[in-house]
Amino acid sequence: MIVEKHQITYRNVASKYYNFLPEEIHLAFRDFDRILSKYGFNVADTMFFSIISDPTASVMTAEIFRPIEESDFSAMPTSEGVNFRSYFSVDGMLMTRIMDQFDELSQVKYWELVKHIQEKDFTQSSPIFVEYKRSHSGVAYVEMSVGVR
């Protein structure tokens, strides 16, 4: 199922660009958390990333985002290549949810979004975003979304 008019909204978001093999995405997540921790930033329980490269490429380019508790980002040296946004928002999105088998279903869901864009004659206006979430009962799931016009 694809939901229209979805939005992503967060406050105090740190982000960094990474290139990695898709099966090594966890190394990029770990590196980013290490950098944030090194400079005293406390990450929220949420993580998301945007897919910048072709999703079928052997090396993936992504911007990884971590909401943080702090609103003052001055302790982060520019040499680390980490960006900060006090407010992050993308609206007018299509969204689909993956409840299990994340690795197996991510490509399927990606192509469902692409097909929906084509069928509805939309224009893609943002990269694909992947958000790792947890329900109130503690169940992990993923939301995959893309901005459209």
From TrEMBL:
Organism annotation: Lysinibacillus composti
Protein name: DUF5085 family protein
One Pfam family recorded for the sequence: DUF5085
